[in-house]
């Protein structure tokens, strides 16, 4: 076989393999509370370093597309500790989130005081325009 033909075949094979690696795959799983083992709804699932985001459903299930370059999923929900999971060859992930330890209730009450009423005023300068006939 001609060296030029072999080089061409190798180039085509390399390009097709690179394209196959860029093809997204779908990851799924369930997010639960580590303490009660109950499904968690509304957990934010982010691919670290990207703007791609998903969320968990009422049964704790989540679905997100990843590519070969993606390496870490970040799971977060108010009241729970954020968790990072390294993406492996697996397509299904079961994640347990631990509740975040809160401050003492007395300290929380002091920091969350809200005024009874909030007033806001704004002023706008207007000018009148008259039309002459």
Explain what this protein looks like in three dimensions.
The protein is of the alpha+beta class. It has a domain at 23-102: Immunoglobulin-like (Sandwich). It has two helices and seven strands. It has helices spanning 3-22, 105-111; strands at 25-33, 44-47, 53-55, 61-66, 72-76, 83-86, 92-97. It has a four-stranded antiparallel beta sheet, with no helix packed on it. The chain has a three-stranded mixed beta sheet with strand order 4-1-7, with no helix packed on it. β5 and β6 form a beta hairpin. The longest helix is centred in the first third of the chain and has 20 residues, at 3-22. The radius of gyration is 27 Å and the shape is flat. Residues 16-20 have low confidence and may be disordered.
Question: What descriptive keywords fit this protein?
Answer:
133 residues; alpha+beta; Immunoglobulin-like; 4-stranded antiparallel beta sheet; 3-stranded mixed beta sheet; flat
Topology readout:
Blueprint: H1 3-22, E1 25-33, E2 44-47, E3 53-55, E4 61-66, E5 72-76, E6 83-86, E7 92-97, H2 105-111
Parallel strand pairs: 1-7
Antiparallel strand pairs: 1-4, 2-3, 2-5, 5-6
Give the C-alpha Rg: 27 Å
Low-confidence stretches: 16-20
**H-E string:** HEEEEEEEH
Mean pLDDT: 78
Looking at the structure, the CATH topology of one domain is Immunoglobulin-like
Q: Please report the number of helical segments.
A: 2
Helix content: 10-25%
Distance between the termini: 92 Å
Strand order, main sheet: write it out. Answer: 3-2-5-6
